Predict the structure.
Amino acid sequence: MSTIKVRLVFPGETASRPITSYLIQDYNLIFNILQARIEPGRPGELVMELEGEEVDLQNGLRFLEREGIGVAVLSRSIQWDSESCVSCGACTAVCASGALHLDADAKLSFDQEKCVVCQMCIKSCPMGVLHLSYGE
Amino acid sequence: MNRTFDEINEKIRTGRVAVFTAEEVVAMVKESSVAEAAKKVDVVTCATFGAMCSSGAFLNFGHSDPPIRMGKITLNQVQASGGLAAVDTYIGATEPSADRGILYGGAHVIEDLVARRPVHLHAESAGTDCYPLKSVDTTLTIEDCNQAYMYNPRNVYQNYSAATNSTDHIIHTYMGTLLPGYGNVTYSTSGELSPLLKDPKLRTIGIGTKIFMGGAQGMVAWQGTQFVRKHTHYDDGEDYAGATLALIGDMKAMNARYVRGATMQGYGCTLYLGVGIPVPVLDEDLMYDLSRPNAELYTTVTDYSTGRRARPGIQRVNYQELRSGSIELMGRRVRTAPLSSLAMAREIAALLKGSIAQGQFTLQEPIALFPEDTPFHPMTIREVRA
């Protein structure tokens, strides 16, 4: 099972059809609506998390596109507030990818390229300076 | 080459003092010798910046009109002691808040006060003839307090076990997140910069020693709670552990850069505090201790998953190995990670060095040294009789 986060834009003409219900019925996906904007006469917008098998997720997204819905998969990344960081190194205890490491000056550095967004670091940080963020 | 505190202070006042950080002295002795370094150096600065749970602050709020004898007291929804006189309180670093739990606690209130951020005070009372007011709500900053001083019963541990986890599941401890199957090792020390590892016999650190505390000048107030002198002789050296310090310092003079509220997942909140201690080079013996490198300072990797008071030690390891990022444990390479900030400890050691070199910080000879033998009692759980 995997989870992805998507932003869906519904053109006016699709807004009245229960399209997301088909994601459950035909594609075995479960979803959690995180943000919704629905106003009469205007395109609707939904931000939601979709969870399911990889193949179902791919088919589900293709179905949405066929229905004329704008689909953007939001990518997850770890944001590091380096200003508030004290370089204690607690996060490096759980960072298997080696993205978070202490450099020669004992200062924390974060290599975004290496990060696999496992999110273990977020709660391991005593100062709360590592966050999950979503972008397109 | 012997020196006294008075001679060193005279050199500080006249701008002739030779002061180096403990790391610089380690390098210096590698290049020359203990005797050479003892001749050259008057003062060595040591520092640490790590989680110091047994910390807290005494505050006096001043009297309202009509006055209140505060009973139940909260600051930003964190409970503080109502067990002192009318408008005095003590707030402990590990107390969680009613609304945010361990994500915000006493340590964060202390950081907010030091940072001069406003804090919400709520207090209740039964009301008395002389203190009629029964409840008060107000916003205050540290400037509104008559006194705000940190008094930490146990800080600056001499040495501390490194932690690992033998079970098949993740555990969350005050030593951080420990992965299953000896998946990682955490440790908490600045090693060769750490004050009580550099004056391990506590020849110059005692009651009255003047220190850098959270950005201000503080003092060693007493032996820390659970203070004990543990000295173990090994073939490759002497290990000292067990000493702790009780510290006192004026929060109004502190800097929030060195006073940080923190949360250990699944455990609680704690205070990260920066402490620097200058050690005078009284003689060659002290320089020998000051020059011990990470490779000669040892701790024991300990299994934190037992949930018992006596945690089994697994192996002895030195701080150079721990600092390298991985050690050999149970037959495989395991990641090691610190919990205290070496970068901040270095910053503090350098700051203290600068203050001493510029004549702004003189040394205080201890009023009394710590006892050689203190009891270290475990708690015996006895039957409770009505």
